[in-house]
From TrEMBL:
Its main location: Golgi. This is Exostosin GT47 domain-containing protein. InterPro entries: Exostosin (IPR004263), Exostosin_GT47 (IPR040911). It comes from the Eukaryota. Keywords: Glycosyltransferase, Golgi apparatus, Membrane, Signal-anchor, Transferase, Transmembrane, Transmembrane helix.
Amino acid sequence: MATSSPTRFVIFPAILFLIVLIPLYLSPINRNQNILPHLLPTHSNLSETTHQTLQTSSSPSLLPKNDSADGVPSTSTDGARATNEIRKRFREKMSHVERIEEGLARARAAIRRAIRTRNYTSEKDEAFIPRGDVYRNPYAFHQSHIEMEKRFKIWAYREGDQPLMHDGPSNDIYAIEGQFMDEIESGKSHFLARHPDEANAFYIPMSLARIVHFIYEPPHYYGKWIPRLVTDYINFVADKYPYWNRSKGADHFLVSCHDWAPDVSALKPDLYKHFIRALCNANTSERFHPIRDISIPEINIPRGKLGPPHLDQPPNKRPILAFFAGGAHGYVRSVLFKYWKEKDDEVQVFERLPRNRNYSKSMGDSKFCLCPSGYEVASPRIVEAIAAGCVPMIICDHYSLPFSDVLDWSKFSIYITSDKIPEIKKILKAVPTETYLEMQKRVKQVQRHFAINRPAKPYDMLHMILHSVWLRRLNVRLPS
Ligand SMILES: *[C@@H]1O[C@H](CO)[C@@H](O)[C@H](O)[C@H]1NC(C)=O
Ligand SMILES: *[C@@H]1O[C@H](CO)[C@@H](O)[C@H](O)[C@H]1NC(C)=O
Ligand SMILES: *[C@@H]1O[C@H](CO)[C@@H](O)[C@H](O)[C@H]1NC(C)=O
Ligand SMILES: *[C@@H]1O[C@H](CO)[C@@H](O)[C@H](O)[C@H]1NC(C)=O
Ligand SMILES: *[C@@H]1O[C@H](CO)[C@@H](O)[C@H](O)[C@H]1NC(C)=O
Ligand SMILES: *[C@@H]1O[C@H](CO)[C@@H](O)[C@H](O)[C@H]1NC(C)=O
């Protein structure tokens, strides 16, 4: 396989985005919201654009002529039986890529129908049905998750040896790397493909936190070691198998929570142009692209546990207005400390929590939990706050919030930039009680999306990460 010409290559970022994200997130219920405004210049032109791209995205040449627009076989009539027969014969003749793309086309069709009908289609009983304001479009998300369960298959490359490969931390602040890797690589996940030909996404099983642990020698900067290792690995599998080249990496992904993870693509930006990086360090002013990349939550996992404690104080048993305790890491916190450190009874900010105070309990006793950036944009406090039923006040500049393809953070958190730090108390006091109570209820509603289960469960954090990859894969069509 030589290089494919740019015209044959079907991935154009603007189109990618329109194919899925518009139909998914700009459904009637969300039309008035200012969703992803940097990508969508005006709302008025949307319907036309959507219509056109939808036509290009469903692939008439791949589908049997009589395939219903919804991609769901009807089962009762003779005509339908004939159609199924045609489809069966057709499928036998399809290549692997065509078969995969046909499945994805059906998934897109089902999602579009769910948006239209405001309901879902599923072959099994749905234990959980996402509904409510916390979702940008609950119908689209629900159907997309159903389709993912049904069709998503991931190949984890097997090349490489431990400890640099196939191994990651499952505790502390980079734990998500090891938890995700173990979930996929343990062989128990039903998302794991049996053969790469059957996969619609490819996982690069490297934990950058682990690699840094083994090769970084303070005080020297790690230099170009990490990007080189990852790039070597990718070149190796791209040489050995056809999968990387056929998509230029657009169906390949890596999951990393390490601060330096965004640097993997720094040495060879062209190689990584379409590669999906799932990162905690989702700093949009450091080349994080929310359409291609995925913002994943940072979660601090204590030993022997799967996350921070879940606390359930009702809103009227939360005497503290706002709480934060943590190290003086990074410029946002230095501003926070300048204005609020041990200065106010209602906005309680500590660098060191007094001995007689319990950190988790304090979060559970607070109405709002301050979640300022540390050395990088993400902070494990967001997940801690959500687990504690405490409405997060996120204090960040240039942060693309986790899972924002699906979740509407404005409904269950408050986001301020660092220049608003002096006004924290004023802003929180201005939140009407009714609004606060709604927000707090919604925090509890999103808890399941920020919880880790092993094995993973539908709609939990690991599934949300997978779903983010799935959505991006839905945006891409491979040439057959
Ligand atoms: C939207 O429509 C207006 C008026 O027709 C036009 O000037 C503008 O360029 C359009 N924007 C896009 C993104 O097509
Ligand atoms: C297939 O579609 C054609 C027209 O496109 C129609 O005449 C025919 O009856 C359809 N067959 C079935 C089995 O639905
Ligand atoms: C939504 O779909 C489910 C399953 O297909 C069905 O049981 C339910 O009646 C539908 N609800 C509405 C309001 O159509
Ligand atoms: C993929 O492309 C690279 C660079 O063009 C080339 O070196 C490699 O051999 C190709 N891989 C395959 C499997 O053909
Ligand atoms: C701190 O508070 C949490 C939540 O109330 C509780 O589970 C934990 O045992 C407490 N820790 C200590 C050291 O008291
Ligand atoms: C995000 O990136 C910008 C640009 O490099 C940088 O100035 C800023 O410090 C970063 N944010 C954090 C919290 O590290």
